[in-house]
Design goal:
Elements (H helix, E strand, L loop, with lengths): L3 E7 L3 H11 L5 E4 L17 E3 L5 H7 L5 H5 L1 E2 L5 H11 L6 H9 L1 H11 L3 E3 L1 H4 E4 L2 E4 L3 E5 L2 H15 L3 E3 L2 E9 L2 E9 L2 E12 L8 H8 L7 E2 L8 H8 L4 E2 L5 E7 L23 E3 L18 H9 L5 E6 L18 E4 L2 H7 L5 H14 L35 E13 L2 E2 L6 E3 L5 E7 L16 H19 L1
Parallel strand pairs: 1-2, 1-12, 2-9, 4-7, 12-22, 13-19
Antiparallel strand pairs: 3-8, 5-8, 6-7, 10-11, 11-12, 14-20, 15-19, 16-17, 17-19, 18-19, 21-22
Helix pairs in contact: 1-8, 1-14, 2-6, 4-5, 6-14, 12-13
Bound molecules: flavin-adenine dinucleotide (FAD).
The site of flavin-adenine dinucleotide has 45 residues, from helix 1, strand 3, strand 10, helix 10 and strand 19.
Length: about 500
């Protein structure tokens, strides 16, 4: 045995560090175990833009999380509101009414308060003007419920949480991989951890598991998500291989949720196998609502304008993976060039430019060029050009008569230069995981809480199914990390 702690937290991402900080409010000896070495620590949380979905009734609510907002910023911004009802509706709708109602209510109702709590711990937030607001007549107008982002994005978030943990006397071990839970009939008593090639046993009154999903494990991906998923690229950390899920299942924890489901997006076709911290989330390619997709057969295969990007991007990675060769091209013309997100400007893109559609299709690697040209002409002819284009609303500017419609923002491709970007499927995180109750206690297959065991974040099941409203992953980790830490420390 190596030492004795009140609470041991497995992982050092957002959920874990929130759990550790909450536990430390009640108990003295808190240890964080992080599998990654320090320079790669912070999990998927570090790869994010730091965007957090928070329910609020107006700017006065937001100032709890962002006390630094000044009068000039408030005057030039229409923050609107994103009520608890809207957040609950979004969760229900995108998960096709599968999300656990009790957990979802906690996620939504504690979102603002938790972000304000993080602010008090030293995490600074700002309004996501650059990402989630349109400038309309000189005033920024927020849309889609995503208003708050951590200063410094994911790296800034992890750094400030880590600093707060250190300041509060929380011990962090890096390159320390938890391998098993130590448990008997009375519950969990500690964890086994491998560090510097040696296995150590750590005693703890409670253990909080916050070690992410299994998306970085190709064998589990093929096993649970289905054939072909081993071919997806991992958008974030290589360390989330399902360890903590397996550790809990081994001692009788109940699996729950959408085990064959995951969050997956359009991602640079030639991106590396795992995320690259120097590039962060910029391999994503999220401007498809302004253009069209083509697959290897030269065919469109999805309604690019079905809904706002925030409500479709997380499920379209799966659709791309299902295409022949697991890739697609996004096609735009010069009319929407200024609207393309920053990620289209990075050096590491697979991009083609041409002054005619005829030339463009010939440059699309691995695509049937003749079929592609025919498809683009058919698309252009189907656009209802009498309906005005408006990116700020679901404008109803659609196609008519196509087998695969485009329901909003359908622009003709007629203004050179034309641009094409190659994408594949990038997996973000898996949806299936451990069953918890509203105190974040892990539930056994017999339906009872496992004494001493808590969980939060990506490895919890039952919250996301099929799809996901953008910016909810961090909020989920923070809210349930805080609940788990508080419960674990009260045990
Ligand atoms: C590119 C990208 C962009 C994203 N953008 C956003 C966004 O803007 N907003 C948003 O809300 N969500 C976003 N997400 C999703 C978000 O990252 C996750 O939902 C969230 O960070 C999960 O937090 P977590 O603490 O549960 O897991 P993580 O942050 O992944 O932390 C898990 C930790 O556990 C550690 N670990 C794993 N196994 C072990 C073990 N055996 N022992 C010890 N430690 C272990 C890992 O090293 C890691 O540090 C994005 C994800 C990616 C990949």
């Amino acid at each position: 045995m190596s030492g004795e702690y009140d609470v041991v937290v497995v992982g050092a991402g957002n959920a874990a560090l929130c759990a550790a900080l909450a536990a430390r409010e009640k108990v003295a000896r808190v240890l964080v175990l992080e599998r990654a070495p320090e320079d790669e620590a912070g999990g998927n949380s570090r790869f994010t833009a730091g965007l957090m979905r928070v329910a609020y009734n107006g700017v006065e609510d937001l100032t709890r999380a962002m006390p630094d907002l000044n009068a000039e910023e408030i005057a030039r911004t229409d923050f609107g509101a994103y009520t608890e009802e809207q957040f609950l509706d979004d969760m229900a709708r995108v998960t096709e009414y599968r999300c656990d109602p009790d957990l979802t209510e906690i996620l939504v109702k504690r979102s603002l308060d938790t972000v304000a709590w993080m602010r008090a711990k030293g995490v600074r937030f700002t309004a996501a003007w650059g990402r989630q607001a349109f400038n309309i007549g000189g005033k920024f107008k927020f849309w889609g419920g995503l208003t708050v982002e951590a200063v410094g994005g994911g790296p800034g978030l992890v750094e400030s949480l880590t600093n707060a943990a250190r300041k509060n006397g929380i011990e962090i071990w890096y390159a320390a991989r938890a391998t098993d839970l130590i448990a008997d009939d009375d519950g969990v008593k500690g964890v086994r951890v491998r560090r510097n090639g040696k296995t150590t046993h750590i005693r703890a009154t409670s253990v909080v598991l916050a070690a992410g999903g299994f998306q970085a494990n190709p064998e589990w991906r093929a096993r649970y998500l289905g054939p072909g998923w081993e071919l997806a690229k991992v958008r974030g950390t290589r360390f989330n291989t399902g360890d903590a899920i397996r550790m809990a299942l081994d001692i009788g924890a109940a699996p729950v949720g959408n085990w064959s489901g995951c969050h997956a997006v359009a991602w640079e076709r030639n991106a590396p196998e795992f995320g690259d911290l120097a590039v962060g989330d910029q391999f994503q390619k999220h401007s498809y609502p302004w253009g069209v997709y083509l697959n290897a057969e030269g065919k469109r295969f999805v309604d690019e304008g079905a809904d706002f990007r925030n409500y479709t991007y997380a499920k379209y990675g799966r659709v791309i993976l299902a295409q022949p060769g697991q890739f697609a091209w996004q096609i735009f013309d010069a009319k929407v060039k200024a609207q393309l997100r920053d990620e289209y400007k990075i050096r590491q893109v697979t991009k083609r430019v041409a002054s005619t559609l005829e030339d463009l299709v010939k440059q699309l690697d691995d695509v049937d060029a003749d079929a592609a040209l025919k498809e683009l002409h058919a698309y252009n002819a189907a656009v209802q050009t009498a309906i005005p284009f408006n990116p700020n609303i679901k404008d109803g500017r659609r196609t008519e008569g196509l087998a695969i419609p485009k329901s909003n923002w359908a622009n003709t491709l007629d203004t050179p230069p034309f641009e094409a970007y190659a994408v594949t499927c990038g997996i973000t995180f898996t949806f299936g995981g451990l069953r918890i109750n509203t105190d974040a206690q892990v539930i056994s297959t017999d339906g009872e809480p496992i004494p001493g065991l808590y969980a939060a974040g990506e490895l919890v099941g039952g919250i996301f199914y099929f799809n996901y409203p953008g910016g909810t992953g961090l909020t989920n980790g923070s809210v349930f990390g805080r609940v788990a830490g508080t419960s674990a420390a009260s045990a």
